[in-house]
Amino acid sequence: MTKTALITGITGQDGSYLAEFLLAKGYEVHGIKRRASSFNTQRIDHIYQDPHEPDPKLRLHYGDLTDTSNLTRIIQEVQPDEVYNLGAQSHVAVSFEAPEYTADVDAIGTLRLLEAIRFLGLEKKTRFYQASTSELYGLVQEIPQRETTPFHPRSPYAVAKLYSYWITVNYREAYGMYACNGILFNHESPRRGETFVTRKITRGLANIAQGLEQCLYMGNIDSLRDWGHAKDYVRMQWMMLQQDQPEDFVIATGKQYSVREFIEWSAAELGIAVEFSGSGVDEIATVTAIEGEDAPALNPGDVIMRIDPQYFRPAEVDTLLGDPTKAKEKLGWEPELTAREMCAEMVREDLRTAKRHALLKEHGYEMPVSLENG
Ligand code: NDP
Ligand code: GDR
């Protein structure tokens, strides 16, 4: 029998990979997209199915995690076997600027979905996945972090996600719902939002190499993260809902690198060797050598990275390192891609775009490079 899944956040990085994954498994996939004044479905346009065709396997519904009646109606219509709650205001730095909205979407949004499932009498039919996060560990109490490590959230985003973590556990315990948390460490891809650190670096350096931007302005580059590939992580989201019993799992690679290392890797993929000098807000990265033809706009001695304190956070999560032993032992999950391979893929994709823009510029058709940062 065809299974039906509902994905909140289908237009985001994970939502797009998960939708592809579930369609390939034969699911009927429903997604909630937000009304926006410009197109926001770029990540899923390649799997879009014309609703005028008979029996489309992907259907989109307008909605918002702040809108209870809308969510309830969609769940009633779709009668999903599985709900993946991936929708969120997912940027940690932005959550300090918009804490109340972040709480409404990232905390109460989860409650709205769980209540809708219960209210509609679907608590024995519908399985629920909550996109929990390594940000819950915040000020880390144990290295590496596992399912039993105590939480200490450090941002309005993480505090909102803490509520969602516990309300998911609570609905499992109180109502016997199949509801579980994936505690996912950072995962990236060429579809990563442009203002998260990895994509900011790969896109920024590709643009600089092609002469479209001058310099990358960064925050805390000492920060350490356990980075995986989003494709590997959405596979685990599905696996978690296929078990006999609902449980929470940490998903991570078990390896940790600094933002500074990620800058070095990305530059190396473009044939650029860099040297870091200075310290604190005066630290810079200077080009020392260039190989190949991907960075025609650069010369040795050019400064391609500076620190801008506006990207420091009021409270930082300095270090995250996950222990995925439970996922490996119970679910047989192994990440297929390393952080370095993922970085190479991201640089390749961003370089392709930058080269297209540079070519247009050369012929007098300049495309504006978005100044949106983060
Ligand atoms: P993205 O930011 O790429 O995607 C977020 C999605 O949520 C987008 O589709 C966005 O819509 C949607 N959204 C935002 N606000 C609302 C709202 N009010 N109502 C409905 N939908 C909304 O995030 P990722 O794909 O990277 O992450 C998916 C989930 O996993 C998020 O919940 C995130 O917090 C969590 N997570 C992510 C990790 C990571 O490293 N990527 C790690 C751990 C957890 P639109 O496209 O219109 O903006
Ligand atoms: P994070 O991801 O906060 O871990 O949350 P992000 O990529 O934004 O930051 C990672 C680390 O890099 C440091 N950093 C910068 N970050 C950004 N965005 N821009 C900069 O210029 C910059 N310079 C240094 C940050 O301070 C931080 O330490 C992501 C999101 O996907 C969350 O939704 C998810 O829950 C967690 O990962 C796990």
Characterise this structure.
It contains ten helices and 15 strands. By secondary structure, the protein is of the alpha/beta class. It has two domains: 4-184, NAD(P)-binding Rossmann-like Domain (Rossmann fold, 3-Layer(aba) Sandwich), CATH 3.40.50.720; 197-224 and 258-316 and 338-363, UDP-galactose 4-epimerase, domain 1 (Alpha-Beta Complex), CATH 3.90.25.10. The strands form four sheets. A seven-stranded parallel β-sheet has the order 3-2-1-4-5-6-11, sandwiched between helices. A four-stranded mixed β-sheet has the order 8-15-14-13. Strands 7-10 form a two-stranded parallel sheet. Helix 6 (197-209) packs across helix 10 (339-362) and helix 8 packs across helix 10. The radius of gyration is 21 Å and the shape is globular. The structure holds NADPH dihydro-nicotinamide-adenine-dinucleotide phosphate and guanosine-5'-diphosphate-rhamnose. The site of NADPH dihydro-nicotinamide-adenine-dinucleotide phosphate (NDP) has 26 residues, from helix 1 and strand 5. Keywords: Lyase, NADP, Nodulation. Its EC number is 4.2.1.47.
Labels describing this entry:
374 residues, Rossmann fold, 10 helices, binds NADPH dihydro-nicotinamide-adenine-dinucleotide phosphate, four-stranded mixed sheet, NADP, 15 strands, globular, 17% strand, alpha/beta, UDP-galactose 4-epimerase, domain 1, binds guanosine-5'-diphosphate-rhamnose
Produce the secondary structure layout:
Elements: E1 4-8, H1 13-24, E2 28-33, E3 58-62, H2 68-78, E4 82-85, H3 92-97, H4 99-119, E5 127-133, H5 156-175, E6 179-184, E7 187-188, H6 197-209, E8 216-218, E9 224-225, E10 228-229, H7 230-240, E11 249-251, E12 257-258, H8 259-269, E13 272-277, E14 284-290, E15 303-307, H9 325-331, H10 339-362
Parallel strand pairs: 1-2, 1-4, 2-3, 4-5, 5-6, 6-11, 7-10, 8-15
Antiparallel strand pairs: 9-12, 13-14, 14-15
Helix pairs in contact: 1-7, 2-4, 4-5, 6-8, 6-10, 8-10
The structure holds NADPH dihydro-nicotinamide-adenine-dinucleotide phosphate and guanosine-5'-diphosphate-rhamnose (GDR).
Residues 90, 92-93, 133-135, 185-186, 195-197, 200, 218-221, 223, 225, 259, 311, 313, 316-317, 374 line the site of guanosine-5'-diphosphate-rhamnose.
EC number: 4.2.1.47
Protein name: GDP-mannose 4,6-dehydratase
Family: Belongs to the NAD(P)-dependent epimerase/dehydratase family. GDP-mannose 4,6-dehydratase subfamily.
